[in-house]
């Protein structure tokens, strides 16, 4: 059965996989987070703005799909069904996260407080987990010479690097007249550029860029359109067709196409397929992302609170996902490749990532995910003035 061209989860040679999510707590204007108004800044008598349950639900469900897909990856060589499910989920789970990130980046500018959040909520966790993953690989994979490199993201950390760059360039994308066609052109050029280099996992950064720009261009009414009853009904046969097509394509097509981490030449395809596959995969992803959003609950659910902790689940579950491969669990236990074993693996993956998104885990790892780092920044005069005004009031 055809799978990815390189070992899953490593650098481009060997390569990683993606997955993941958005910065943690409800900070205003952070990617993937519903903006909130701090209580101190709220006008007298008004309640702080609440998080939108729809987006928290979407992020939680997407991170569960991320973990499930990672658990299926070792099964895809022996199970055509697992490969088909894997391909379908990979078509939309990361694009969904990235669209949400772009949507909540619409108000991003170079204001000092937002730049601080960009550093503490994305850049610092990247550095911490890049180091942590490298140490883990050295120990768990018995590879003590594996190099530290902040320029070559390992496994899941590619998303943080990309998110940092996408957000930092948001003012530029808001300035140009046709941002989405331009982003698609950039992604196409990246797809036919095998010499683009591995620094910052640039292929993924550029090939996933259109989804961030799509979210940046979206408005609340677009999400209202997606959540109409007619879209929910239509999504059922659409997903069914996607699964049937994926089952047919599983032995014929490499799943590496859905990682967006290689050029078409590296995937063994001629250059002319770059524009075709870029547009085709973008179209398929947008359709399935829309179907996914159509079925996300709008009301507050038992798991809504976990939507604020998707970055925790995303980064922390990577240790278990990689450890299971380093320690040979899927090779040692043959029953995992049976239907009941595949179901058990799926349930375990969903349960583990759910636990990792819970508030107790968030509190335990907040020092790494959301460090305050007040000591590292100069006092902003505007913030000081606002603080004095609030205190006086």
Notable characteristics:
transmembrane helix, Acyltransferase family protein, membrane, single chain, globular, mainly alpha, 393 residues, acyltransferase activity
Describe this structure in words.
- By secondary structure, this protein is mainly α.
- Helices cover 59% and strands 0% of the residues.
- The protein has 16 helices and no strands.
- The chain has helices at 53-72, 80-103, 112-140, 158-168, 170-175, 179-191, 202-207, 209-217, 220-226, 229-249, 273-295, 310-326, 329-332, 339-356, 359-369, 381-392.
- α2 (80-103) packs across α10 (229-249) and α3 packs parallel to α12 (310-326).
- The longest helix is centred in the N-terminal third of the chain and has 29 residues, at 112-140.
- The radius of gyration is 21 Å and the shape is globular.
- The N and C termini lie far apart (68 Å).
- 41% of the residues are buried.
- Mean pLDDT is 86; it is low at 1-20 and 22-46.
- Residues 1-49 are annotated as: Disordered.
- Residues 31-46 have a biased composition (Low complexity).
- It comes from Streptomyces asiaticus subsp. ignotus.
- Residues 53-357 form the Acyltransferase domain.
- The chain crosses the membrane at residues 54-72, 84-105, 117-136, 148-166, 230-250, 276-295, 302-320, 340-361.
State the oligomer: single chain
Residue share in helix: 55-70%
What structural category do the secondary elements indicate?
Answer: mainly alpha
Radius of gyration from the alpha-carbon trace, in angstroms: 21 Å
What is the beta-strand fraction? under 5%
Report the strand count. Answer: 0
InterPro entries: Acyl_transf_3_dom, Nod_factor_acetyltransferase
Transmembrane segments: 54-72, 84-105, 117-136, 148-166, 230-250, 276-295, 302-320, 340-361
GO molecular function: acyltransferase activity
Keywords: Acyltransferase, Membrane, Transferase, Transmembrane, Transmembrane helix
């Amino acid at each position: 059965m055809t799978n990815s061209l390189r070992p899953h989860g490593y650098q481009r040679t060997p390569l990683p996989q993606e997955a993941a999510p958005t910065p943690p707590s409800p900070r205003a204007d952070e990617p993937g987070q519903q903006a909130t108004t701090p209580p101190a800044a709220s006008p007298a008598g008004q309640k702080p703005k609440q998080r939108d349950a729809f987006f928290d639900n979407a992020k939680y469900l997407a991170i569960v799909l991320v973990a499930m897909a990672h658990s299926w990856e070792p099964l895809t060589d022996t199970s055509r069904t697992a490969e088909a499910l894997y391909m379908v989920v990979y078509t939309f789970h990361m694009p969904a996260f990235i669209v949400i990130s772009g949507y909540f980046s619409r108000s991003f500018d170079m204001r000092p407080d937002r730049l601080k959040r960009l550093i503490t909520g994305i850049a610092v966790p990247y550095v911490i987990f890049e180091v942590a993953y490298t140490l883990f690989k050295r120990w768990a994979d018995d590879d003590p010479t594996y190099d530290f490199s902040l320029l070559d993201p390992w496994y899941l950390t590619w998303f943080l690097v990309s998110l940092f760059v996408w957000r930092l360039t948001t003012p530029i994308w808001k300035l140009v007249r046709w941002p989405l066609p331009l982003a698609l052109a950039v992604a196409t050029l990246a797809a036919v550029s095998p010499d683009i280099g591995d620094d910052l996992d640039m292929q993924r950064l550029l090939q996933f860029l259109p989804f961030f720009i799509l979210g940046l261009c979206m408005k609340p009414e677009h999400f209202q359109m997606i959540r109409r009853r007619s879209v929910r009904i239509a999504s059922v046969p659409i997903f069914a067709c996607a699964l049937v097509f994926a089952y047919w394509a599983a032995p014929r097509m490499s799943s590496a196409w859905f990682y967006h981490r290689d050029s078409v030449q590296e995937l063994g395809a001629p250059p002319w397929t770059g524009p075709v596959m870029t547009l085709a995969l973008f179209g398929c992803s947008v359709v399935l992302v829309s179907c996914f959003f159509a079925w996300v609950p709008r009301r507050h659910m038992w798991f809504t609170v976990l939507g604020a902790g998707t970055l925790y689940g995303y980064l922390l579950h990577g240790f278990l996902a990689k450890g299971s491969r380093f320690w040979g669990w899927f090779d040692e236990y043959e029953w995992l490749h049976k239907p009941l074993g595949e179901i058990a693996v799926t349930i375990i993956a969903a349960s583990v990532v759910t636990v990792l998104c819970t508030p107790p885990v968030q509190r335990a790892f907040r020092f790494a995910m959301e460090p305050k780092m007040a000591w590292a920044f100069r006092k902003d005069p505007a913030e000081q003035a606002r603080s004095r005004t609030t205190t006086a009031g």
